[in-house]
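for the writeup, i need someone to sanity check this before i put it in the appendix. the sequnce is what the collaborator sent (i think, or maybe the updated version? ugh). structure was predicted straight from it, no edits. if anything looks off just tell me and ill rerun, i have time this weekend
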Amino acid sequence: MKKTTGLIFLILLGSMLFSQISNPIIFNSARLDINNIEATINANGNLFYTPTDTSNFELGYEFPKGSGKHTFFNSTFWIGGLNENNELRLAGELYNQVGNDFWNGPLSVNNGLVSCSETTANQWNKVWKLSAEEIAWHIQHYRDWGYIPTENIASWPAHGDMNLNQSANLAPFVDFDNDQIYNPMNGDYPLIKGDQCIYFIFNDVKRHTESDGDSLGIEIHGMAYAFNSTESEAINHTIFVNYKIYNRSNNEYHDTYIGAFADIDIGYFLDDYFATEVQLGAIYQYNGDGFDEGETGYGSNPPAQAMALLAGPLMNENNMDDPSGGCDVSINGVGFGDGVVDNERLGLTGSRRINNDVNNFGLPHVAPEYYNILTGKYIDGQETRVFCDDSLTTVPYKFEQPANSDPCYWGVDGQTCPVYANWSDETGNNGFPNPPGERSGVAISGPFTFKANSVQNLDLAFVSARDFSDSNSVTLLKTYLSEIRNTFITNPNGFGDNYVGIHQNKSELDKLFVYPNPAKEYLTLSKTISPANEFVIMDSFGRVMKKGKVVTNIIPVSDLKPGIYCLLIQSRTEVKTIRFIKK
């Protein structure tokens, strides 16, 4: 475990857990380092730290980069649901100090049975780190005599092993020659997000030695990414992560919830406060006493750190375009009131603060306790409640310590509860401040039905802010969060897609756009460009639907089905990417 108190806690609970492992698996990792944050990404999906044994670790969320200071300890992925017999299936991890629920690699599927061999897990204990600049070089030079692609472009895991009954298509790529086979020497290239990304694949089919849960049969494709922006300070202080979660089993899971665990430590870990920003869909922490002590501390004007759940799983279908503007999941969800039927994705639907102790606010250690947290309960299954007003009346709640970010009282089902609305570590649950201390939290999205052989997405943003002119960096953090969310919701399914970097020298493709958008019959390019340029239209799964030369500034799209598409205009030296909607 990470800190002395936590290690003692888990050792004392040893009889309730699977036996501790003296030599934890060391997963391959790489670091995002293109902007003002340097972040470690592990191949098993455990973010921002690397355990070296049961009591030692390496921190991996340095902010600002090069400072030697850290605002995050780690973040992990949780998911749990009920099968047709109402039996719990759950995977979730904390620190990998008592075991693992997740293992590397894609799944083999044989007559409805899913598996992953030890050999496969070992082979896939790796990550792929790529930059947009690296891909741009490949696009420009793959035709050159003697050209050899970089190792990560050459080994990009686009396809599974069909002899092992793995999925034919894994990591996304641009299939430039449209032969459905990834071959970078034919002009194909990885389809990444951001100016820099790290890609990894993991699954939950082996024995769950951390949660003691039963496997769901899921395969998760993770892409962590970042931008180097000279225009947006918020973007330059953010790490993004997209998870694509494939249910490879034949089982349907109802009442499924996804959770993102966040152990945020603002330098010195024992003096933090926790809060939820409901409207912006985030949990965050900040220093509780204004000065961050110790060798690991930031001193005066310490930063604030958030984890935003930008978008979670698709809502269950209801054959309608759910409206926006209500006191409901549309507050921080995406796809509401946009004219598209059944594309709504849940946002942050709940949050929980977790203390590093053994009470009802403590860390979970078996699958039912993880699931209780995901469903908004205490770890023992009791309903969580908060004071509603100055009387002794209590009500159930969705969001822990909303700190005046839930003006319509969505978290208490619309009841007017001023004590809940104002609830924070600074007010406490009874009007008295809580002492600063160790805090962790979980951002929750659900419930939803996870159908057999379907895929869901989770998009997260890890946002850091430090305001040297103010003793509290929370205001700046919320400004960053607002900008990040507003940027994301304009294109939630394609956010981050970036092929050659966001900083190019001005060219004929500079400021190119298309209209009308949405389009029905055709797209019109906003200016005339060279007929030597080529265009590619891909669907939301990265499949090439059309391609050709840019003969005129008109591109017909009437033969495309309604949906969201990506238009690539490719010259000899660059690629311009434009998202559009086909009506």
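The longest strand covers residues 253-264. The mean pLDDT is 89.
thx in advance!!
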